[in-house]
Amino acid sequence: MKIYIIDDHALFRNGLVSLLESRKISAKAASSPEQGLEEIPDLLIDIILLDLRMPSMSGLEVLKTLKERNEQTPVVILTTSTDENDLRDCLKYGAQGYLLKDMDPDELVDSLNEVATGSIIVTQDMTHVLVKALKNELTDSESSFELLTKREKEVACQISGGHSNKVIARELGISDGTVKLHVKSILKKLSLSSRVEVAVMVTEKGYCK
């Protein structure tokens, strides 16, 4: 697994590189968002670990830029922020994970391995914040779930299991492109903006039991 870190704090950045390499994980780091955005297109990496609070450009701005570029590498936020708005905004703009910097190193490595297999990871300490942040949106979406087609419901249930488009395609015997179209339709019908919101709604309401 190859990890690319964007963090302006040298001590933390260098320590994280050493930690990951001690676990046999390849790690490279950028000291600024600008450096990261310049280097990413030329790198073969599995996960981008992104700090949220940086002076020249916020992690959220980096996320938006990567989304505009249609960057396919999963982005995981690694931050000290437990703010509800930060969590919601990062997931809205495509982050596949939201982790806290004070987490146990073994838990970090386990989380990165899960993200690499297509899972969406939110640190356990933030789960209650996630539910609170999405509560109003999910309430508005509940009645719309029945508007989904049978296949869209199947895809939504696969999303709730944290599966990637490739895994969903294999499980349902359809193409990646078809899965993408179903996901787009699901988000539109449920008035949601991310796969994480779909996963939370489906899980909380037990639609796929």
UniProtKB/TrEMBL annotation:
Modified residues (4-aspartylphosphate): 51
SUPFAM superfamilies on file: C-terminal effector domain of the bipartite response regulators, CheY-like
HTH luxR-type domain span: 141-206
Protein name per its UniProtKB record: Nitrate/nitrite response regulator protein
Top-level lineage group: Bacteria
Annotated keywords: DNA-binding, Phosphoprotein
Domain Response regulatory residue range list: 2-116
